[in-house]
Fold this protein.
Amino acid sequence: MDKLAILGGQKAVEKSTLNWPEDFLKIHGEEEIGALTRVIRSGVVWGAFASEVTAFEREFAQYIGTTHAIATNSGAAALHSAMAAAGVGPATEIITSPHTFIASATSVMHHNGVPVFADIDPKTYNIDPEKIEERITKNTKAIEPVHICGLPADMDRIGKIADSHGLVVIEDACQAHGATYGGKKVGAIGDMAAFSLNGAKNMMSGEGGVFTTNSDEYAARVARVRIFGEDIRPNTPREYKSGGDGWNYRMCELNAAIARVQLARLDATNRVRIENAEYLTHKLERTAGFIPPYIPQDRTSVYHYYKIRVDPSALDVKMSGHQLRDRVVAALTAEGVKAAVWCREPIYKQPLFKTLDGYGLGCPWRCPHATRKIEYKDGDCPIAERISDETFNIQVHPPNDLELMKQYATAFEKVSANASELVEIKLPRWEKWWGGYIPVEPIS
Ligand SMILES: Cc1ncc(COP(=O)(O)O)c(C=O)c1O
């Protein structure tokens, strides 16, 4: 095989990778521009019952298959609203995955609940139902599975555990718009769910989020939380009377108009992601040293990211998975593959969970109502730690296509065939990139 680009050889990837969503909008942005113009011309740019927000909520609920969808101004806001509706509060514990974005946990803390982390499954990278069982205490209120990288968590087993312990299930579906489990879309499986519509997601509105549920009661609570604790009705003057605590989590008309365009296009963009991903998986299954994403038969993934694990045992190298991963990402980057390390460590390793510096005088951990001391230690979730060390992500979104994936596959084959030379590569300097890390020049 040719010499690695990082060691002076020819690059395997000639085509440039287009970034999401900026380059996507270069091709398809006219509809978004039309929607924004329509809103500006209408003169109505905000309002909980304004027409774009209302239409988006109706369309999203129909798409997911729930009776309610409530638009918010972020995924974190939708998640926090769900925690509030579930009755999360002082001394309650919510079991979630450590292999996620920080908002899965901070949304719990905003309501004085304590996040408890259960380890993940080494194949799906989603929360492991068995580990959930081990973490349940009399304080546990809810389970918050995160459908990471667009792959649904094991919702049947999670649902059974929740039923047998009387727990609420709140899906963090922020990365999984359109993914299915047992033929049902995520967001319609647990008691409640939250989606993010920030600029990086499979569908976006700039910033934004959506809460979904089939429960009238939860929907009513979230509707209240979204607008300062007030009960408001369409076509009825707002009274400005709060019946409970609340925030301003409303989505604006401009964001809703973009979200509607993106929702109409979601299945088509997800199809491209799936097609690109399936092609790469077919290739990586035949390329030593790389483990492609595992998608159980009962689920579909929408590949928010395409996560690859390195396997040193399949290569003739004397390196740990972590050492190999860093060198592989550097070598692939030099070949022209857009590869990034995302979720470099489980979130409980972030300083917040060492200092326990929550809001107020250290709530939720030092809340006077707390009945149990919860600490976070390195080694708490060994599988999540290992997966963070041994995986990296690439992006398979449109307008990137099969032609690019073919060149990517050649780059992977080249790195695999030259694996023994990876020892010579100096560790790259890393730079932050979209919540992850990419190696930067000089990388050799
Ligand atoms: C898994 C997960 N949960 C929650 C969030 C929070 O969403 P937002 O950024 O819209 O608040 C994100 C988005 O980054 C996410 O990826």
In short: The longest helix spans residues 253-284. The mean pLDDT is 94. Residues 74-76, 79, 100-101, 103-104, 146, 172, 174-175, 196, 198, 209 surround pyridoxal-5'-phosphate (CB under 6 Å).
